[in-house]
Amino acid sequence: MGYHWNRFHPPWTLREQTLNEFGIANPMVRALKYNAVTSAVYKRMLRARAADTRAFVFVATTGRSGSQSLARIFDAVDGAVCHHEPHPVMGDTCPPGRDRGAYFRHLFRVLKAPHVLRDACGHKVYVETNHQFVKRFAAEAVQEFGDRLRVIHLRRDPVPVATSFYRIDSVPGRTKRGRLWLLDPADPENRLPLSDLMAPGGELDHDLYRCLWYWYETEARILDLRRRFPHVPMPTLDTAGLNDADTLAACFRELDIPLDRSRLDELAGTRLNTKKQDNHHRVARGEAEVMNERLQDVIRGRFGDLGAAVISGASV
What we know:
This protein is α/β, with parallel strands linked by helices and 316 residues long. The chain has helices spanning 14-22, 27-33, 36-49, 67-73, 100-120, 133-145, 158-167, 176-181, 195-198, 207-228, 245-255, 261-267, 285-314; strands at residues 2-5, 55-60, 80-84, 125-129, 149-155, 236-238.
Protein backbone atom coordinates (compact mmCIF):
# COMPACT_ATOMS: atom_id res chain seq x y z
CA MET A 1 0.00 0.00 0.00
CA GLY A 2 1.16 3.57 -0.39
CA TYR A 3 -0.10 7.12 -0.08
CA HIS A 4 1.30 9.85 -2.28
CA TRP A 5 0.42 13.51 -2.62
CA ASN A 6 1.18 15.46 -5.75
CA ARG A 7 4.53 17.20 -5.51
CA PHE A 8 3.96 19.01 -8.80
CA HIS A 9 3.20 22.69 -8.16
CA PRO A 10 1.85 24.01 -11.45
CA PRO A 11 2.43 27.57 -12.61
CA TRP A 12 -0.63 29.66 -13.29
CA THR A 13 -0.05 30.44 -16.98
CA LEU A 14 -2.07 28.38 -19.45
CA ARG A 15 0.89 27.68 -21.74
CA GLU A 16 3.20 26.50 -18.96
CA GLN A 17 0.47 24.41 -17.37
CA THR A 18 -0.29 22.70 -20.69
CA LEU A 19 3.41 21.95 -21.28
CA ASN A 20 3.76 20.53 -17.78
CA GLU A 21 0.77 18.23 -18.27
CA PHE A 22 2.44 16.65 -21.30
CA GLY A 23 6.00 17.12 -20.04
CA ILE A 24 7.33 17.84 -23.53
CA ALA A 25 7.88 21.37 -24.81
CA ASN A 26 8.52 20.48 -28.47
CA PRO A 27 5.08 20.35 -30.16
CA MET A 28 6.23 17.89 -32.86
CA VAL A 29 7.62 15.40 -30.35
CA ARG A 30 4.52 15.88 -28.21
CA ALA A 31 2.26 15.15 -31.18
CA LEU A 32 4.18 11.95 -31.96
CA LYS A 33 4.09 10.68 -28.39
CA TYR A 34 0.56 11.75 -27.45
CA ASN A 35 -1.65 10.80 -30.36
CA ALA A 36 -4.56 8.41 -30.75
CA VAL A 37 -2.55 5.54 -32.29
CA THR A 38 0.36 5.64 -29.83
CA SER A 39 -2.03 6.01 -26.91
CA ALA A 40 -4.22 3.09 -28.02
CA VAL A 41 -1.23 0.73 -28.27
CA TYR A 42 0.20 1.86 -24.93
CA LYS A 43 -3.17 1.59 -23.15
CA ARG A 44 -3.74 -1.92 -24.50
CA MET A 45 -0.47 -2.99 -22.91
CA LEU A 46 -1.27 -1.21 -19.65
CA ARG A 47 -4.78 -2.66 -19.47
CA ALA A 48 -3.32 -6.13 -19.67
CA ARG A 49 -0.84 -5.35 -16.89
CA ALA A 50 -3.57 -3.80 -14.71
CA ALA A 51 -6.05 -6.62 -15.29
CA ASP A 52 -5.73 -7.78 -11.68
CA THR A 53 -6.57 -4.36 -10.23
CA ARG A 54 -10.01 -4.99 -8.76
CA ALA A 55 -11.11 -1.40 -8.16
CA PHE A 56 -10.42 2.13 -9.37
CA VAL A 57 -11.65 4.59 -6.76
CA PHE A 58 -12.19 8.29 -7.43
CA VAL A 59 -13.73 11.05 -5.35
CA ALA A 60 -16.56 13.35 -6.42
CA THR A 61 -16.21 16.49 -4.34
CA THR A 62 -15.73 20.23 -4.33
CA GLY A 63 -12.29 20.25 -2.75
CA ARG A 64 -11.58 21.80 0.68
CA SER A 65 -13.56 18.82 1.96
CA GLY A 66 -10.97 16.44 3.41
CA SER A 67 -10.03 14.64 0.20
CA GLN A 68 -6.33 14.53 1.06
CA SER A 69 -7.17 13.04 4.47
CA LEU A 70 -9.33 10.45 2.72
CA ALA A 71 -6.38 9.42 0.55
CA ARG A 72 -4.36 8.87 3.70
CA ILE A 73 -7.14 6.70 5.17
CA PHE A 74 -6.87 4.33 2.21
CA ASP A 75 -3.58 3.18 3.71
CA ALA A 76 -5.85 0.83 5.66
CA VAL A 77 -6.49 -1.10 2.44
CA ASP A 78 -3.99 -3.84 1.68
CA GLY A 79 -2.54 -3.55 -1.82
CA ALA A 80 -3.85 -0.04 -2.49
CA VAL A 81 -1.93 2.75 -4.16
CA CYS A 82 -3.34 6.14 -3.17
CA HIS A 83 -2.76 9.47 -4.89
CA HIS A 84 -4.00 12.93 -3.99
CA GLU A 85 -4.30 15.12 -7.11
CA PRO A 86 -1.62 13.26 -9.12
CA HIS A 87 -0.16 14.38 -12.41
CA PRO A 88 -1.93 15.09 -14.70
CA VAL A 89 -4.36 16.85 -12.38
CA MET A 90 -6.67 17.84 -15.27
CA GLY A 91 -7.19 21.48 -14.37
CA ASP A 92 -8.83 23.82 -16.85
CA THR A 93 -6.05 24.15 -19.42
CA CYS A 94 -8.36 24.24 -22.45
CA PRO A 95 -7.16 26.93 -24.89
CA PRO A 96 -9.72 29.63 -25.76
CA GLY A 97 -11.89 28.75 -28.72
CA ARG A 98 -11.38 24.99 -28.47
CA ASP A 99 -14.21 22.49 -28.09
CA ARG A 100 -13.92 21.93 -24.34
CA GLY A 101 -15.59 18.52 -24.31
CA ALA A 102 -13.38 17.21 -27.12
CA TYR A 103 -10.28 18.70 -25.50
CA PHE A 104 -10.75 16.99 -22.14
CA ARG A 105 -11.81 13.70 -23.71
CA HIS A 106 -8.59 13.71 -25.72
CA LEU A 107 -6.54 14.65 -22.67
CA PHE A 108 -8.06 11.77 -20.72
CA ARG A 109 -7.47 9.22 -23.48
CA VAL A 110 -3.88 10.09 -24.31
CA LEU A 111 -2.58 11.27 -20.92
CA LYS A 112 -4.76 10.70 -17.87
CA ALA A 113 -5.91 7.13 -18.49
CA PRO A 114 -2.39 5.84 -19.27
CA HIS A 115 -1.07 7.43 -16.06
CA VAL A 116 -3.83 5.82 -13.99
CA LEU A 117 -3.38 2.39 -15.56
CA ARG A 118 0.40 2.56 -15.21
CA ASP A 119 0.18 3.45 -11.52
CA ALA A 120 -2.43 0.75 -10.91
CA CYS A 121 -0.18 -2.03 -12.21
CA GLY A 122 0.74 -4.44 -9.45
CA HIS A 123 -1.88 -3.07 -7.02
CA LYS A 124 -5.26 -4.42 -6.00
CA VAL A 125 -6.86 -0.99 -5.65
CA TYR A 126 -6.06 2.35 -7.30
CA VAL A 127 -7.28 5.42 -5.39
CA GLU A 128 -7.26 9.02 -6.61
CA THR A 129 -8.66 11.88 -4.54
CA ASN A 130 -8.90 14.64 -7.09
CA HIS A 131 -11.78 17.11 -7.28
CA GLN A 132 -11.21 17.52 -11.02
CA PHE A 133 -12.80 14.08 -11.49
CA VAL A 134 -16.40 15.26 -11.53
CA LYS A 135 -15.50 18.38 -13.53
CA ARG A 136 -13.34 16.96 -16.30
CA PHE A 137 -13.30 13.17 -16.73
CA ALA A 138 -16.01 11.29 -14.82
CA ALA A 139 -17.86 9.99 -17.89
CA GLU A 140 -14.60 8.95 -19.52
CA ALA A 141 -13.59 7.06 -16.34
CA VAL A 142 -16.90 5.15 -16.43
CA GLN A 143 -16.16 4.08 -19.98
CA GLU A 144 -12.52 3.18 -19.29
CA PHE A 145 -12.84 1.29 -16.00
CA GLY A 146 -16.34 -0.18 -16.32
CA ASP A 147 -17.57 -2.24 -13.39
CA ARG A 148 -14.26 -1.75 -11.55
CA LEU A 149 -15.02 1.94 -11.03
CA ARG A 150 -15.96 3.15 -7.55
CA VAL A 151 -16.77 6.74 -6.57
CA ILE A 152 -16.94 8.30 -3.12
CA HIS A 153 -19.17 11.37 -2.89
CA LEU A 154 -17.23 13.33 -0.27
CA ARG A 155 -19.29 16.22 1.03
CA ARG A 156 -18.72 19.12 3.38
CA ASP A 157 -21.29 21.82 4.17
CA PRO A 158 -21.38 24.66 1.59
CA VAL A 159 -20.51 27.58 3.87
CA PRO A 160 -17.17 26.25 5.21
CA VAL A 161 -16.19 25.08 1.71
CA ALA A 162 -17.02 28.44 0.14
CA THR A 163 -15.37 30.53 2.84
CA SER A 164 -12.27 28.32 2.63
CA PHE A 165 -11.92 28.99 -1.10
CA TYR A 166 -12.68 32.66 -0.53
CA ARG A 167 -9.92 32.92 2.08
CA ILE A 168 -7.29 31.47 -0.25
CA ASP A 169 -8.36 33.70 -3.15
CA SER A 170 -9.70 30.83 -5.24
CA VAL A 171 -12.77 32.43 -6.82
CA PRO A 172 -14.61 30.70 -9.69
CA GLY A 173 -14.13 32.46 -13.01
CA ARG A 174 -12.31 35.42 -11.47
CA THR A 175 -8.91 34.61 -9.93
CA LYS A 176 -6.05 32.51 -11.30
CA ARG A 177 -6.67 29.67 -8.89
CA GLY A 178 -10.39 29.77 -9.43
CA ARG A 179 -10.13 29.70 -13.21
CA LEU A 180 -7.69 26.80 -13.25
CA TRP A 181 -9.12 24.50 -10.57
CA LEU A 182 -12.79 25.37 -10.03
CA LEU A 183 -15.78 25.93 -12.34
CA ASP A 184 -16.63 29.01 -14.37
CA PRO A 185 -20.08 30.57 -13.89
CA ALA A 186 -20.04 31.33 -17.63
CA ASP A 187 -19.56 27.68 -18.66
CA PRO A 188 -22.45 26.77 -21.01
CA GLU A 189 -22.50 23.25 -19.54
CA ASN A 190 -23.44 24.47 -16.05
CA ARG A 191 -26.47 22.80 -14.50
CA LEU A 192 -27.17 25.91 -12.39
CA PRO A 193 -26.31 28.86 -14.68
CA LEU A 194 -26.34 32.10 -12.71
CA SER A 195 -23.68 34.14 -14.47
CA ASP A 196 -26.16 36.94 -15.20
CA LEU A 197 -26.72 37.50 -11.48
CA MET A 198 -23.00 37.31 -10.68
CA ALA A 199 -22.02 39.81 -13.38
CA PRO A 200 -20.86 43.28 -12.28
CA GLY A 201 -23.82 45.06 -10.74
CA GLY A 202 -25.87 41.86 -10.42
CA GLU A 203 -27.64 40.92 -7.22
CA LEU A 204 -25.07 38.15 -6.57
CA ASP A 205 -22.03 40.22 -7.54
CA HIS A 206 -19.71 39.17 -4.72
CA ASP A 207 -16.80 36.73 -4.75
CA LEU A 208 -18.29 34.73 -1.90
CA TYR A 209 -21.48 34.17 -3.90
CA ARG A 210 -19.31 32.69 -6.65
CA CYS A 211 -17.67 30.35 -4.15
CA LEU A 212 -21.05 29.32 -2.74
CA TRP A 213 -22.47 28.79 -6.24
CA TYR A 214 -19.50 26.56 -7.01
CA TRP A 215 -20.55 24.19 -4.21
CA TYR A 216 -24.10 23.88 -5.54
CA GLU A 217 -22.96 23.52 -9.16
CA THR A 218 -20.56 20.74 -8.19
CA GLU A 219 -23.29 18.95 -6.26
CA ALA A 220 -25.62 19.31 -9.25
CA ARG A 221 -23.00 17.63 -11.44
CA ILE A 222 -22.60 14.82 -8.92
CA LEU A 223 -26.38 14.34 -8.90
CA ASP A 224 -26.30 14.20 -12.69
CA LEU A 225 -23.50 11.63 -12.52
CA ARG A 226 -25.61 9.41 -10.27
CA ARG A 227 -28.57 9.63 -12.62
CA ARG A 228 -26.52 8.89 -15.74
CA PHE A 229 -24.59 5.97 -14.24
CA PRO A 230 -26.76 4.37 -11.54
CA HIS A 231 -24.73 1.15 -11.68
CA VAL A 232 -21.58 2.84 -10.33
CA PRO A 233 -21.23 2.39 -6.54
CA MET A 234 -21.23 5.91 -5.08
CA PRO A 235 -21.65 6.12 -1.31
CA THR A 236 -21.86 9.58 0.26
CA LEU A 237 -19.36 10.37 3.01
CA ASP A 238 -19.66 13.61 4.95
CA THR A 239 -16.41 15.20 6.08
CA ALA A 240 -17.31 14.52 9.71
CA GLY A 241 -17.31 10.82 8.84
CA LEU A 242 -13.56 10.98 8.25
CA ASN A 243 -13.23 11.11 12.03
CA ASP A 244 -15.38 8.05 12.67
CA ALA A 245 -13.99 4.58 12.00
CA ASP A 246 -17.44 2.95 11.94
CA THR A 247 -18.71 5.37 9.30
CA LEU A 248 -15.60 4.79 7.22
CA ALA A 249 -15.91 1.02 7.55
CA ALA A 250 -19.51 1.20 6.29
CA CYS A 251 -18.36 3.24 3.28
CA PHE A 252 -15.68 0.68 2.44
CA ARG A 253 -18.24 -2.13 2.68
CA GLU A 254 -20.48 -0.32 0.21
CA LEU A 255 -17.50 -0.05 -2.13
CA ASP A 256 -16.81 -3.78 -1.63
CA ILE A 257 -13.22 -3.04 -0.61
CA PRO A 258 -11.76 -5.02 2.32
CA LEU A 259 -9.63 -3.17 4.85
CA ASP A 260 -7.53 -3.54 7.97
CA ARG A 261 -9.86 -2.34 10.72
CA SER A 262 -7.11 -1.85 13.29
CA ARG A 263 -5.22 0.33 10.80
CA LEU A 264 -8.42 2.24 10.03
CA ASP A 265 -8.89 3.00 13.73
CA GLU A 266 -5.44 4.59 13.75
CA LEU A 267 -6.01 6.68 10.63
CA ALA A 268 -9.52 8.02 11.30
CA GLY A 269 -9.37 11.71 12.17
CA THR A 270 -6.15 12.50 10.30
CA ARG A 271 -6.24 16.11 9.02
CA LEU A 272 -4.12 17.36 6.14
CA ASN A 273 -3.95 20.35 3.77
CA THR A 274 -5.41 22.98 6.11
CA LYS A 275 -3.73 25.90 4.24
CA LYS A 276 -3.54 27.95 7.44
CA GLN A 277 -0.83 30.12 5.96
CA ASP A 278 -2.89 31.19 2.96
CA ASN A 279 -5.62 33.57 4.12
CA HIS A 280 -6.33 36.46 1.75
CA HIS A 281 -9.94 37.29 2.65
CA ARG A 282 -12.16 36.90 5.68
CA VAL A 283 -15.92 36.92 6.11
CA ALA A 284 -18.01 36.54 9.25
CA ARG A 285 -19.73 33.16 9.54
CA GLY A 286 -23.10 34.82 10.15
CA GLU A 287 -22.78 36.95 7.02
CA ALA A 288 -21.79 33.90 4.97
CA GLU A 289 -24.82 31.97 6.27
CA VAL A 290 -27.15 34.80 5.24
CA MET A 291 -25.60 34.89 1.76
CA ASN A 292 -25.96 31.11 1.48
CA GLU A 293 -29.66 31.33 2.35
CA ARG A 294 -30.13 34.06 -0.24
CA LEU A 295 -28.43 31.93 -2.90
CA GLN A 296 -30.61 28.95 -1.97
CA ASP A 297 -33.71 31.08 -2.52
CA VAL A 298 -32.46 32.05 -5.96
CA ILE A 299 -31.63 28.42 -6.86
CA ARG A 300 -35.06 27.20 -5.73
CA GLY A 301 -36.81 29.92 -7.68
CA ARG A 302 -34.89 29.47 -10.91
CA PHE A 303 -34.25 25.73 -11.08
CA GLY A 304 -37.31 24.14 -9.50
CA ASP A 305 -36.98 20.43 -8.73
CA LEU A 306 -33.29 20.30 -9.62
CA GLY A 307 -32.55 23.21 -7.31
CA ALA A 308 -34.57 21.64 -4.51
CA ALA A 309 -32.76 18.31 -4.92
CA VAL A 310 -29.33 19.94 -4.77
CA ILE A 311 -30.27 22.09 -1.76
CA SER A 312 -31.67 19.11 0.12
CA GLY A 313 -28.19 17.59 -0.04
CA ALA A 314 -26.76 20.74 1.55
CA SER A 315 -28.85 20.29 4.66
CA VAL A 316 -28.36 16.54 5.20
